[in-house]
Amino acid sequence: QVQLVESGGGLVQPGGSLRLSCAASGSIFLINTMGWYRQAPGKQRELVAHINSVGSTNSGNSVKGRFTISRDNAKNTVYLQMNSLKPEDTAVYYCNAGIATMHSPSVLQNYWGQGTQVTVSS
To answer: Which of 1, 19, 81, 117 could form a disulfide with 68, with the two C-beta atoms 3.0–4.6 Å apart?
Structure first.
């Protein structure tokens, strides 16, 4: 079994910062791409940013220049540093990862975290 556990969400004022973390645990053989998605009420889930196993990143246009994704492969953890937060960043943020388990080392499966709420409001 593999679990992704997010932390770091909360309430912040516009212009503030938050750092999200997502740790993968369980019977992990390897982790490929890790990323963050978000879903605001009444909207579809959208990509925030993702990072592959060698550190190449990609992010959505709405967060470029404000959000930075990074990962610590030794800790199986991905981070999202969010700066200059805006009310429109309010959403549930989900961690995502492509993981091969010890049971099936040649098969990448898609895993999701439970989500963490980020609210940007004065």
So the answer is: 81
